Amino acid sequence: MTSLLEIKNLVKTYSKQPEPALDDVSIKVEKGEVVVIIGASGSGKSTLLRCINRLVEPNEGEILLEGENILDPTYNVNVLRQNVGMVFQSFNLFSHLTVIKNLTLGLTKVKGIPIDEATNVAMDILERVDLADKADNYPAELSGGQQQRVGIARALAMSPKLMLFDEPTSALDPELVGEIISIMLSLAKEHMTMLVVTHEIGFAREAADRIIYMDKGKIIEEQPGNKLLTDPQHPRTKQFLQRIRK
Ligand SMILES: Nc1ncnc2c1ncn2[C@@H]1O[C@H](COP(=O)(O)OP(=O)(O)OP(=O)(O)O)[C@@H](O)[C@H]1O
Ligand SMILES: [Mg+2]
Fold it and tell me: Using a 6 Å cutoff on CB, does residue 43 contact ligand 1?
């Protein structure tokens, strides 16, 4: 069976940086799976997610989405934008657009949906993240947690097959983390396929079908369920978990 996402031997070296940010990384994600990636700062987690939606071009390797190589020069990036949603640590909303316009932009420009219909779709999704009353506000008029809910809603509006989350709660005040985690948990329950970089161990424990530990651009350990948290095998995984639990 073809995996939803298959990454083969990915290598990324940035200029001015001798050590590769990604060093022969291979991962498979099946439809409906929630895969959590943990690892120290600089271990390549963001680079990996950025390669998957082509914000960063890897030097070597393959990324197959439903068997199609998204790195192929002939691959239509618009198809990728529809199928893969990304939620960023720093929200990355369009500050000059209202909340509703942040959601409708991709629907009209990428999916070619007429604005009336796009607005209806967007309003439904805003309801879901409990932000329908903020549709006409600008991002700067929202709390961090609300902005990140818009970030999630914007990605969901495209009905993606895969959602990428890059530390979606780490820019938030502690009291705002819960509202984002609860949306992510509900997506996981609905079997949204998710690849999540997070330090929220509670989310990983509850939702992960698999947890991956990255160190210096490599996958050091990968375990089903929450085994990596309860029974880590590699000394570096153990060390990392001890550090973040302190
Ligand atoms: N645009 C860039 N140009 C040059 N080097 C970069 C760039 N982005 C990342 N790097 C380097 O690549 C390595 C991996 O960075 P990356 O951001 O992927 O790590 P990370 O695991 O997401 O870290 P964090 O937990 O701090 O977000 C680091 O050494 C970083 O300095
Ligand atoms: Mg990062």
Answer: yes
Q: Closest ligand 1 atom, CA of 16?
A: 4
Where exactly are the structural domains of the chain? 5-93+154-245
| φ/ψ of residue 130, rounded to 5 | 65, 40
CB of 209 closer than 8 Å to CB of 34: yes
Cβ-Cβ contacts under 8 Å for 206 (sequence gap 6 or more): 185
Strands 210-215 and 68-69: unpaired
Give the Cα-Cα-Cα angle 92, 161, 51 (nearest 5 degrees): 55
Tokens of 207: 């939702």
Mean pLDDT value across residues 104-126: 97
- CATH of 5-93+154-245, picked from 3.40.50.2000, 3.40.50.300, 3.40.50.1980, 1.10.3720.10, is 3.40.50.300
48 CA: nearest ligand 1 atom? 18
As a whole number, mean pLDDT of residues 91-107 equals 97
